[in-house]
Amino acid sequence: MVLLVRICFNCSSQLFKIVLCSSIQYDIDGTQTEIVTISGNLGDRWFGKQAEVPTLKRYRLVFEASVGNNKETGDIAIDDVDFRSGRCGHDLSCDFEGSQCLWENTQYGDYSDWLRLAGATSTWRTGPSVDHTTGTPQGYFIYFESNSATVGYSAWLLSPAFKYDDTTACFTFWYHMYGSTVGELNFIVIDEDTKEETYRWRLNGQQNPDQSTWLEGQFGVLAPSDGTTTTTPQTGQTLMIRVEAVLGYFLYGDIALDDLNVEAGTCKYKPEAADPSNQETINCDFDVNWCGWSNVPNAGPDDKLDWQRRRSGTPTRGTGPRVDHTTDSFQGHYLYFESSSGSPGFNALLRSVQISATPNGACFQFWLHMYGQTMGELEIYSESPDGYQERRWKQTGTLRDEWVYRQIDIVADYHYQLIFNAIRGVGDLGDIAIDDVFFDPTAGCPALEKCSFETDFCGWSQEKIQDDFDWSRSRGREHEDIPVDKTVGVDTGYYAWVNTTANPVNGDSAILFSPTYVLTSVPHCLRFFYYHDGIGALTIHSRRSGSYSNALWVAPPVGYKGWRFGSSTVTDLLLLRELLAPPLVLLWQSMKYESM
Asked: Cα 216 from chain centroid?
């Protein structure tokens, strides 16, 4: 006979410590035998427990609660008592035939719940048609219903706390991930004492060939001691397992589980693709998951907040991005720090996977969005395994209401992790977001060649042979058609200018060359503001060894009286094929055309 009971210690949320003892006994003709004892302050929440009754005689159960010898008091409560025939399995074991066993949905942190079901799920073309235990539509399993949530929303299923030892070293289960827009399934081991979380198994996308086939999964609860995850669990350490299902891009994404169990001895990943190290990378666009980035729990007295993964706009108006940077749409995801909660100075830390030493230099590139009247700070620092920290970059205050590119050179003769530290400002209008992070360990960052033309051409030069007239530095005070520059917004600010109305010959051009750039294999971004009244044509090209590329960018043919933003991606494709390819030069070309 199996007895399952939920027990709550300190249910009345007393503010003082409680030392209590609860025991479960069975009584045969007045003789009581204890079968389980629970004592101490376990915290203000419900816990699950099960116990076997080792007798074939008629009996009755007795719940006994007692207070310790001191004067401190507190409450003990029980709920959801359930009896089933047969022996108890491990606390983590469950086939879901009679109940969810000791596994439960969390009350906070997610947006949906796992459901227990027999038969097909409600969404067509996704989810299992039978359970794994019995292989019939009458058997039960637990699943995440994709048509009840929004893209990116998750459902968490939490195990009971258990003591780690050799008998709990391998966690096994059967999973079902069938559907054209399946999101992701993650298993996370939580240290009950430190609250540190470690991803132990991760998959995303459709895995099963059809709706009737289940696949076996397993992972070792023992975390590798290679410095990239938490410390190896010790015997007797209290752990919990959280199962996370995340909705994909549409409703054909039901995820199901059945026959959860633990086994003795270590085990390898099944399938091998679920090893988190295969997906834990610093490079990430956050559209599928967090890659190798994670929140740092309890890092200090002000670490009260967390980074979140989100799509579309943030909840607070007047701050935060409206779309992601990768797809420039409401469907793409990014990570962000929500400033409407907490107090000024509260922060949230986001940590990368471990990076090998880069004594010869490396380049960390990312896009950020920091817009709002009460914007706080964002800083990046590196941290060695022994806790040595070195700040690499810092931004304080609001920027433009758009995604902004930044890059950081990193030279370090030690292994390290990169950490984003977002710090809340004095008000709610200070959301901070990041997207499209990229790390190049092979070389330092390429020079960001900037020019405002306030003092000179910054190395840009006139074409002497193949064009017909020239660009010049000018300002609004001298030309009423372009009254102010973009940099300082006044009539004394300078810009590069060409007068297409002064030369009457159609097809004449003025070419302005950039300095020579030696590019790496990473795409580069050319960003600029331009003023084009619609007369003539304005284009950007690259040139290598005298050969011009096709236009990388062309100004819209319809003119506009004002400064507009433009950008173009420059990819050094030749460099990928030929390491000794000559440097690349960018050029502006302005051509004269008149309507006929």
From this structure: 27
CATH no. for 294-440? 2.60.120.200
Dmax over Cα atoms in the chain, in whole Å? Answer: 115
Pick the CATH number of 104-278 from 1.25.40.10, 3.40.50.720, 3.40.50.2300, 2.60.120.200: 2.60.120.200
Confidence at residue 24, expressed as pLDDT on a 0 to 100 scale: 52
CA distance from start to end of the chain = 96
Question: What are the backbone dihedrals phi and psi of residue 470, each rounded to the nearest 5 degrees, phi first?
Answer: -120, 160
Cβ burial, residue 576 (10 Å; 0-12/13-18/19+): exposed
| Number of separate helices (H) and strands (E) present in the chain | 1, 37
What is the domain partition of the chain in residue ranges?
2-84, 104-278, 294-440, 461-591
Cα–Cα distance measured from residue 296 to residue 349, given in angstroms and rounded to the nearest whole number: 5
Averaged confidence pLDDT in the chain = 80
- In this predicted model, what pLDDT tens digit does every residue of 400-442 receive, in sequence order? 888 888 889 999 999 999 999 999 999 999 999 999 999 999 8
Element at 8 (helix H, strand E): strand 2-9
Judge if 104-278 and 461-591 fold alike in CATH terms.
yes
| Predicted confidence (pLDDT) at residue 529 exceeds the cutoff of 70 | yes
| Angle ∠(373,376,377) on CA atoms, nearest 5 | 140
Distances (CA, A) of 176 to 142, 143, 209, 513: 10, 9, 10, 58
Q: Which of 88, 245, 262 is nearest to 162 (CA)?
A: 262
Place of tokens 């003119």: 559
Helix (H) or strand (E) holding 573, with range, is helix 573-577
- Separation in Å, CA 184 to CA 13, 290, 300: 36, 11, 31
Q: pLDDT category, 589, cuts 50, 70, 90?
A: low
Does residue 388 sit in helix, strand or coil? coil
Top-confidence range, 200-204, 442-446, 531-535, 577-581: 200-204
pTM over 0.70: no
* Domain at 461-591, CATH from 3.40.50.620, 3.40.190.10, 2.40.30.10, 2.60.120.200: 2.60.120.200
Estimate to the nearest angstrom the gap between the alpha carbon of 212 and the chain centroid: 32
pLDDT in tens, 560-588: 788 888 888 776 432 222 222 233 445 55
- For residues 567 and 485, give the distance between their C-alpha atoms in angstroms, rounded to a whole number: 18
Under a CB-based contact definition with an 8 Å cutoff, are residues 160 and 89 in contact? no
By percentage, how much of the chain surpasses pLDDT 70?
Answer: 80
Which is more confidently placed, 110 or 141?
141
Cα separation, 329 vs 322, in Å, equals: 8
Closest CA to 201 of 215, 180, 181: 215
